[in-house]
Amino acid sequence: MKRLALALLALTLAVSIVGCSSAGGTSPKPSGGAPEVPAQPTKVDPYAAIPGDGVHEKAAYAAIPKALTYVENNTKEQGREVTDVSAGKATLVSYTLQAEAGDRICLFEVRGDGKAYEQYHYPATPDPAKLFWQDAAIGEGALLADPSGTGETAGAAAVRKIVEQASPGENVKVSIYGYNFYWIKEDGTPVNTPGGSPFTISIDPSGAAGSWSM
What pairing do the DSSP bridges indicate for beta strands 209-212 and 42-44? Predict the structure, then answer.
């Protein structure tokens, strides 16, 4: 079964705030005062919704009922407890993107903050020198889509920037690999599986459930 039970389990993300300088130039620091406290990173909601108004995003949302039924039936066939998602609302939280450079591929995710993270490494900042590359032959047959719309194109650009640093001079192609949905409750937390991890379904560009958590 294609990419069964892959889950995006990251919980928190912090980004640095850029300090503001005064319009009139630099003023001398007063002596004897309290020590200057550095700006603290802003807490970003890891389950923030990605806008769903793009053509591909709308199609992914429309595919949820069929994908969810497939996952539930498959889970029952395996004798597992089905996750009750009735307390939450299906929410597009991230894209999965495939970057191809030469004969290698690497997977990334882009969340609501617009930044690219290597798949399963959110919220760590990617190191271009330490990306997990696989032979491009492994990805043959994967259902991919060209980025379209504001969210996808911005996400692809973020991925491309990292990959071009990792593989200078190589031809880089970035494609949409999947749309990752969480079921978010009114308190902003995700519905969990019986095992305690956030319940997710990744829907591929064809509208099928490419992977899910149990």
Answer: unpaired
